[in-house]
Every structure is written in C-alpha cells, then in structure tokens.
Specification:
Number of domains: 1
Mean pLDDT: 83
Radius of gyration: 17 Å
Order of helices and strands: EEEHEHEEEHEEEHH
Largest sheet: 6 strands, mixed
CATH architecture: 3-Layer(aba) Sandwich
Helix content: 10-25%
CATH class: Alpha Beta
CATH superfamily: Peptidoglycan recognition protein-like
Strand order of the largest sheet: 3-6-5-7-4-10
CATH topology: Lysozyme-like
Low-confidence stretches: 1-56
C-alpha cells in the first residue's frame, strides 16, 4: 500500500503520512502481522470554536473535573526500544476525545500487553516511518491504561490518531478488534470513561455534549477549514471515513459518555 507524504516542516519532519484513500474503511491500526490499512494521521492546525459543551467563563476555574486514573508510562512498556524522534507538539487544551480500536487480536493475556504495544509501535515507527505511536493512550481488556504517544501523560499532547482533528483532542485506543457482535469488556469501557472524564476536565467539557473543531484538511470527513460539530467523546468514524472503533464499541459510547459525566460530578 502506498503512503502519501506531506511537505517537511521547518525541522525537516514530514507533516502527514497517510494511507491512500482506497483503504480508509479499514480499522484504525495494523495488526501485528500485517502493517496495512491504517487510517490514522497527524493533521495541521485545527482550531476549536465556540463554548458549546464547556462552561465558558473567562478566567474561571473548571467546575467539573475527575481524578486521574492510573496510567502505565511508556517507559515501562517501551524501554530501550524507543527510537529517536522529534520533540512532542502540544495544544493549549483537550476539548474532545476520539475512541479507536487497534484492529489487533482480542485473545491476548493482559500480561502480554507491553509486548503487543511494542509490536504496534514498531509497525508505526518502522514499517510506516512515523515519528511515534499515533494514539495518546491505549486501554486493554483488563482496564489497564497505557501511555501512548510521548510528551507527558498530564499534558495536551498533539496526537496522530484522527485525520483532520488531532489538535485539542486525545486519542484513546481500545486494544483489540470490536466489530459487530464482539463482546466489549466492562473493564475496558470503564477505563476509557475514567480517562475521558479526566482529560476533558480542565476544559470543563461535558462528555455527553458536543464541541466545535475546525478540520485541518480535506482528508477528514470535512473540507479543510470547515467547522464541524462533533461529540465530545466521539468514535474515530465521526471525524474520518473509517469503521473504527468497530460497531460493538460504538454501541458502548453512550454508556462511556454517561459514566464519564458522572465521574466529573455532573448530575443534570
């Protein structure tokens, strides 16, 4: 499969590395055997617009926050396998969450997840020549949260997970394949909800609401420069033409949103 490469930025980095459009209906991330059918990519310069799901009082402290869930740092699962890469990029805040699945096998032992993540990392940074893993976080079926992309667990790191909408968003990937009829573990959805509640708290974004984001390029569902109204906790397919995160996980998004809102202390 051919990869389209964007122009280099002032540091010499490629701005976009994306699969050709013919494969966009596939899952979010290659399996461990075949590193094909990725529908992820870093975009450039989207901007959020309007107050919508957040309480916009200039200078006011956020009213709805949630505690940070336990997160396994990337140093634990990646160790000495980390490749040299450019410095991370950051946004001013996280206003939305995109939920993905990794399109990898489901029957794993949770003790083997670090090795699985190293395989995913190698597939993206090696065969695909990305600068880092695309997702900000990965959650396994046992509910363990792993740091993905480098830059700091607590910081608004610009990911490479949702074409056109990487800025002011966090990408959370469920480890596995969650197509129609596949069971989705409660531990996994509960962990995604806890992570979403925490990351959206500083912006006071209601996980049940919507946000407005500006598409960075026409390879998303929206033409470059278009302001899109998207769920604050969205499936990958809301911003990009893909079946990710799978029908089974998409069906659990309402539960994830409601739980995340409760974790933020929202009752209305």
């Amino acid at each position: 499969m051919r990869v389209l490469r964007g122009p280099r930025d002032p540091r010499g980095r490629r701005a976009d590395r994306i699969p050709v459009p013919a494969r966009v209906l596939s899952g979010c991330l290659p399996g461990l055997v075949a590193v094909a059918a990725l529908a992820l990519c870093a975009g450039d310069e989207e901007r959020a617009a309007g107050p919508d799901a957040r309480s916009a009082v200039p200078g006011a402290a956020p009213r709805h926050t949630a505690p940070r869930p336990p997160v396994v740092p990337r140093s634990v699962w990646l160790g000495d396998d980390a490749r040299a890469q450019p410095a991370p990029r950051y946004d001013d805040e996280v206003r939305a969450v995109f939920v993905h699945h990794t399109d990898t096998p489901n029957g794993y032992d949770c003790a083997d997840v670090p090795a699985i993540l190293r395989g995913i990392y190698t597939g993206q940074t090696g065969a695909r020549d990305w600068d880092d893993i695309g997702y900000n976080f990965v959650v396994d079926r046992c509910g363990t949260v792993y740091e993905g992309r480098a830059g700091g667990i607590d910081r608004p790191v610009t990911g490479a997970h949702t074409q056109g909408f990487n800025h002011r968003t966090t990408g959370i990937a469920a480890l596995g394949t969650f197509t129609a009829g596949v069971p989705v573990p409660d531990a996994l959805t509960d962990a995604i909800a806890a992570l979403a509640a925490w990351k959206l708290g500083p912006a006071d974004t209601d996980p049940r609401g919507t946000v407005r984001l500006v598409s960075s390029n026409g390879l998303s569902r929206y033409a470059a420069g278009t302001t899109a109204t998207l769920p604050a906790v969205a499936g990958h397919g809301e911003g990009y033409r893909t079946s990710c995160p799978g029908e089974a996980l998409i069906a659990r998004l309402p539960h994830i949103r409601e739980l995340a809102a409760r974790l933020q202390g929202r009752t209305g």
